[in-house]
């Protein structure tokens, strides 16, 4: 069964994080795991009221990339974050998936989740 889980241990991703030029301490990882085996991941950070998604892998497996991206973006929504900046292969996958991006920016994130109006994070919002 496929699961997408936050991975607190960044050690397996240090080379990727350094290659992306982001701070190791602020980098966060989510992995897709199928039958105990890692099948994909995303590297992202929360900064200044937004989530920045630097990469998703595999970007060419659109259903898997979609699941990973939506999981990561939903984590942001649960924190009350509605702004996402996507770069590189995360941005290209999002475009191919039909996410409404404006120069790599996705606002509001909750727009991806059509049935999200009743979610707890929306009950406290003022429009």
Summarize the amount of helix as a percent range: 25-40%
Order of neighbouring strands in the sheet with most strands: 1-2-3-4-5-6
- Count all strands and give the number: 6
Shape: globular
Summarize the helix and strand pattern as letters: EHEEEHEHEH
CATH secondary-structure class: Alpha Beta
Biggest sheet, in brief? Answer: 6 strands, mixed
- Our count of helices gives 4
Commentary on this structure:
With 127 residues, this protein is of the alpha+beta class. It has a single domain (2-123), classed as Aminopeptidase (3-Layer(aba) Sandwich), CATH 3.40.630.30. 29% of the residues lie in helices and 29% in strands. It has helices spanning 14-20, 62-78, 88-96, 120-123, and strands spanning 2-7, 28-34, 37-47, 50-57, 84-86, 105-106. Strand 2 and strand 3 form a beta hairpin. The longest helix has 17 residues, at 62-78. The radius of gyration is 14 Å and the shape is globular. The termini are far apart.
């Amino acid at each position: 069964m496929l699961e997408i889980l936050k991975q607190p241990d960044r050690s397996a991703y240090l080379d990727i994080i350094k290659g992306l030029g982001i701070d190791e301490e602020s980098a966060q990882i989510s992995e897709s795991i199928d039958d105990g085996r890692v099948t994909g991941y995303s590297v992202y950070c929360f900064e200044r009221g937004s989530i920045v998604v630097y990469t998703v892998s595999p970007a060419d497996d659109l259903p898997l990339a979609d699941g990973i991206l939506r999981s990561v973006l939903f984590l942001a929504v649960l924190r009350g974050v509605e702004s996402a900046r996507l770069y590189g292969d995360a941005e290209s996958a999002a475009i191919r998936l039909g996410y409404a991006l404006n120069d790599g920016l996705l606002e509001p994130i909750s727009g991806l989740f059509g049935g999200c109006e009743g979610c707890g994070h929306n009950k406290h919002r003022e429009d």
